[in-house]
Amino acid sequence: MPATRRLAWLAFASAGVLVLTHLLRIFTEWGQRWEDDAFLEAQALSADVQDACDALLSTLRIPTIAALVVAFLVIAAYRRQALTGLAIAFAFAGAVVSAEVLAILIPRPDLAADLTALIDNDGANTFPSGHATIATALGLAFITVVAPRWRPWVAVIALAFTIAVACSTVIAGWHRPSDAVGGIALATAWLAGAASLLSRWRGVDAVPGPNRAPVTGGLIVIAASLVMTTALALSAQGGFLVAFATAEALVIAAAGTLQGAYAFTLQRVDFTR
Fold first, then answer.
1. Smallest Cα–Cα separation from 253: which of 219, 228, 230?
2. Residue of 16, 41, 31 whose CA lies nearest to 244
3. In this predicted structure, what is the pLDDT of residue 202?
4. Which of 27, 137, 153, 236 has the largest count of CB atoms under 10 Å?
5. Distance CA 219, CA 217 (A)
6. Residue 84 burial (CB < 10 Å; 0-12/13-18/19+)?
7. Is the pTM of the predicted complex or chain greater than 0.90?
């Protein structure tokens, strides 16, 4: 299957993950209870862990984001692919803006009032997470604009960054788990859609970079994230935090699957001027 079609299918699949996640968290009582349990269990973690996650999330301010956008545009221009950089910047902006719009427009009926009452945001809708959207979109943008031989290594770094930010939104009490999954899926849908169009109109065959070592690196990132999540769930007083651990594992799985599919599909594609 050509890369153009695979990227298009990835965009549709990511959109499907976004919709399915929303439906399960909105229209099922068990879905709301599970993620509210996970959100509340995260508050049992140590203050030091929560402060560290809060500090990480606080770095994603407008100046930092703007600098990173400029960085991937500069890389694209250096590789004489300015149009590719602009298209990816447009997709990045679309992902961020649509995350904010969806958080305003999508309602969240209260099916677990007893748990929602314990959450400080008064049940306000926060789906999808803007921070998870930004982190994912930035990672995918850099994967797209760098030379094919560097993409596997950049993908490993991007995955670690996305997992760190997305999981931190739950630990710091900024978002529910489904918000993080939704942000990852939304960003992947936008970037994969843009890359699919670029591949169709400006795509050329490329010699891929080394595969085995970066794949191993990506698996190590995922495994280390799961081990860290398990350790955090065990460290809390009162026993193992089941809902928190399973929720963070789902966030890690979403990031690993969608970003991994994106990087794998792009490994043999480059873009003309």
1. 219
2. 41
3. 73
4. 137
5. 5
6. buried
7. yes
State the residue range of the domain holding 201: 3-271
3-class DSSP assignment, residue 210 = coil
Q: Between residues 15 and 121, which one has the greater pLDDT? A: 15
CA triple 138-9-186, angle to 5 deg: 35
Helices (H) and strands (E) in the chain, counts: 11, 2
Number of domains in the chain: 1
Q: What is the pLDDT of residue 180?
A: 97
Confidence tier at 270 by pLDDT (50, 70, 90): confident
The string of DSSP codes covering 56-121 is: HHHT--HHHHHHHHHHHHHHHHHTT-HHHHHHHHHHHHHHHHHHHHHHHHS----S-HHHHTTSTT
Alpha-carbon torsion (86, 88, 90, 96), positive or negative: negative
Per-residue pLDDT tens for 127-179? 999 999 999 999 999 999 998 888 889 999 999 999 999 999 999 999 999 99
Name which of 89, 43, 41 is nearest 66 in CA terms: 89
